[in-house]
Amino acid sequence: MIEAISFKNIVNKVNDELKKASARITFYDSVDPVSRNAMAEINKKIKRHNFIGVMFCNPNTTFCKNEILLHLNYFHHRSGKYINFFCCGYGAYWPEGRYKDQQVVASIDGTAWSYSNQAFVSVLCEFEKTTKWKYSGENELLLLDVSPSRDDKLNINSAIVCNLEAMNRDKAFTSVRSFFEDIIRYSVTGKNANGWQFSDRKGGEVAKNYLKETVLSLLPKTLQDTYKKAENYAIRQI
To answer: Which of 27, 52, 200, 208 is least surrounded, with the fewest CB atoms within 10 Å of its CB?
Structure first.
């Protein structure tokens, strides 16, 4: 779980993580000049990307309290280094009065995490400006496939929004915990990297649809056909 009190905060963290990944590849490839040069050419052709989750979840709602807040510490440890979940409007180590409306809502690793509607709305507005997504007012999870960017915007390859409350009403999962577990397990296996690269080779439109198709595959088969509709309220591309 990562603090997200500004859009720039998310962009910087994403780019830092992608740079670290590139640095690791360079290090392991530097065995000898011949191997290094050969792998450098291969690496140039690889599109760097990462799979992240951006949570817009209001802790003052019963759904968020029961399904998310009580399990933030677990999600933090379970997601580990495999996928970053950005909690919009949430943060730690805030000085008193940083936001007039800040309130302590959870604890992660013994550290108090606070929430502010002011910070939440700030990130929300930036996302609405830079994507086709419009906030529903309910608890939502954005799943994004992102690549490095050279400015203050996210370089988004593919994106979907999951309205967690709508999915809950549709019985798309037994709990948010089980849904997140499937997403984390998918990230742990590395299937997201292999699958996206395969999809990208097949063509741009296929790559854009890959993320939605992947998430749908995690749901009950009885709902997959319904959710495949382009304008479905619960899961849609943005």
So the answer is: 27
Q: What is the DSSP string of 38-56?
A: HHHHHHHHS---EEEEEEE
Q: Measured between alpha carbons, how far is 188 from 42 in angstroms, rounded to an integer?
A: 24
* Domain region containing 53: 2-237
Whole-angstrom distance, CA of residue 5 vs CA of residue 115: 9
Residue 45 pLDDT? 43
d(CA 17, CA 124): 22
- The whole-angstrom separation of Cα 89 and Cα 59 is 10
Nearest CA to 69 out of 169, 139, 166, 170 is that of 139
Residue 146's CB: how many other CB atoms inside 10 A? 22
Describe the strand order of the beta sheet including 103-108 as a list of residue ranges.
90-92, 111-115, 103-108
pLDDT beneath 50: ranges in the chain: 23-29, 39-46, 195-196, 198-199, 201-206
The residue assigned the tokens 């056909």 is 225
Centre a 10 Å sphere on the Cβ of residue 113 and count the other Cβ atoms it contains.
Answer: 23
In this prediction the pTM is: 0.81
- The tally of domains found in the chain comes to 1
- Can you give the pLDDT at residue 116? 97
Coil, strand or helix at 202 = helix
Whole-number Å distance between alpha carbons of 71 and 87: 13
pLDDT reported for residue 25 = 45
